[in-house]
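Quick note —
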Amino acid sequence: MSADTPTSDAVPFVSDDSEAAEEEEECQDAAQEEEPISGVSPVRAVLTVLILCYVNLLNYMDRFTVAGVLPDIERYFAIDDSKSGLLQTVFICSYMFLAPLFGYLGDRHNRKLIMSIGIAFWSLVTLASSYTPKEHFWALLLTRGLVGVGEASYSTIAPTIIADLYVKDSRTTMLSIFYFAIPVGSGLGYIVGSQVSNVAKDWHWALRVTPALGLVAVLLLVLVVQEPKRGAIEARPEHQLHRSSWMDDLRALSKNTSFVLSTLGFTAVAFVTGSLALWAPTFLFRAAMFTGERAPCVESHCSSSDSLIFGVITCVTGVLGVASGVQASRVLRSRTPHADPLVCAAGLLLSAPFLYLAVVCAQASTVATYVFIFLGETFLSMNWAIVADILLYVVVPTRRSTAEALQIVISHLLGDAGSPYLIGVVSDSLRKWDSFLWQFRSLQLSLLICSFVAVGGGAFFLATALFIEKDRYQAENFIPADDGPILVPKSGRSTLVPVSSVLI
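Predicted structure written out below.
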């Protein structure tokens, strides 16, 4: 070797250009690793949940504003209890029947766009309903039915976006924040509806608050919310799961025992909450007249504190119920995989006796009635976030919007779609004379139905506990039919592995 030839120690292992290229690749890899799997930054993910929570708040505010001014609506249109119950029923029916359509679209198209259009439509229709003349009660029914179109576009999709942003305990926490909006929004519906009506001396103005807030929600959705990748944050993202047909999704969901039983349990929750939501303020108003605490009202507008008090109770019990349900679930999960359905069952079974006592004691003590309603609604609210979490972990990501829609259809069809009307019909049938006494007594007897339905719902959740572990395991280890296992030799034996594993 000549002296001019450098030794191996003097020769660089790679050139400077190669080192620069390697450093650049490492930086790119690090940047890719830092990029969130869902495609949404942590800050924007939190903002997304808060905006979805705000819209959910408006959703339930709008839904129960009518209940807050129901006595005024009954006098304005001169209608009985059965027709009053129709106001909630037509809304729930349109909401329920359109939910599968939006569930199908939500699993396949841009969810942000669908929600934005739906909320804008719902806000405009709600505003239109506030101009209903006295001679056309049917027009109020029609517009309340159309409000369900917009709300169906939102309720089926929003939880699936949260599911694509968070997993495990973080998902439960965010869902609990999201579902805090249900009781709080419901309570604000009573409060805002009754107080705006009192100030304006006209119940129509109560329906003009949420439309303006709804348009703000559309702007926030368009400008802030970012569509996350479906299922990317979980073990296997959307492109590895493949979409199946709608009929295949329905068949798979019908065989998912935990989904079916928890949906039936949630149906009981919907039945009870739907009945109380519409009729509780009116029942308390009639109870006060029956006991002599309030003089009978014959004017077109009657100032009443019952909707305000019931609204405050609904807000407080909702927050307490959802928080205690989530916390109880977290504590029990470390001890048993059946924690979620057991907490739901306990909530319903504990609420039943308190709701029964609230109805029975109304004729003797208004204070006792409010106390029992407070306890009953607290236990009833323990279910909201947990039921949603159960659905999300027993159903694969590409079927979640469809599952949400199907749960909405079943729970509303057998629950709060008919319960307000049923309570009204039973009340009218039990009323022997048109007096303040029988207006109270007939509604009191009809509301006792809720306690027995709550017990039935608790039984369904207890049954869910028997299957929850198996169904969760199957969802987490789901293998699509078109990616079925094949036989591959391994050490002289045959082993089942997915096709994708071999191709990769």
